[in-house]
Design goal:
By secondary structure, the protein is mostly beta strands. It is 0% helix and 59% strand. It contains no helices and 11 strands. The strands form 2 sheets. Strands 2, 4, 5, 6, 9, 10 and 11 form a 7-stranded mixed beta sheet that branches. Strands 1-3-8-7 form a 4-stranded antiparallel beta sheet, with no helix packed on it. β5 and β6 form a beta hairpin. The protein is elongated, with a radius of gyration of 14 Å.
């Protein structure tokens, strides 16, 4: 069993910053990738940023403003969000591709954390 616990969401003014965190725990042997998705009301869930191996990729809408990173143990992923815009308002979800001890690789989701950008 794997759990992803997110934190760091909240209310921020346009131009401000937030840092989201997601900690993975449980039956973990290898974490191949960790990513952040977001979903605004009425929209589909979209990939915001992903860290796989030594490579990171970002949605065009957040390039230059958001940064995804991992801790030394590779079990925590962060999303540093700068120069926030109202259109960044959404529920942000952590996602991880994890292989457990004696188990196959699976993808897991966090419960989501609300980010609201408003003046």
């Amino acid at each position: 069993q794997v759990q992803l616990v997110e934190s760091g969401g909240g209310l921020v003014q346009p131009g401000g910053s937030l840092r989201l965190s997601c900690a993975a725990s449980g039956n973990i042997f290898v974490i191949y990738a960790m990513a952040w998705y977001r979903q605004a009301p009425g929209n589909q869930r979209e990939l915001v940023a992903i860290s796989r191996g030594g490579t990171t990729n970002y949605a065009d809408s957040v390039k230059g403003r958001f940064t995804i990173s991992r801790d030394n143990a590779k079990t925590v992923v962060y999303l540093q969000m700068n120069s926030l815009k109202p259109e960044d308002t959404a529920v942000y979800y952590c996602n991880a591709e994890i292989q457990g001890v004696t188990t196959a690789t699976s993808r897991y989701w966090g419960q989501g954390t609300q980010v609201t950008v408003s003046s």
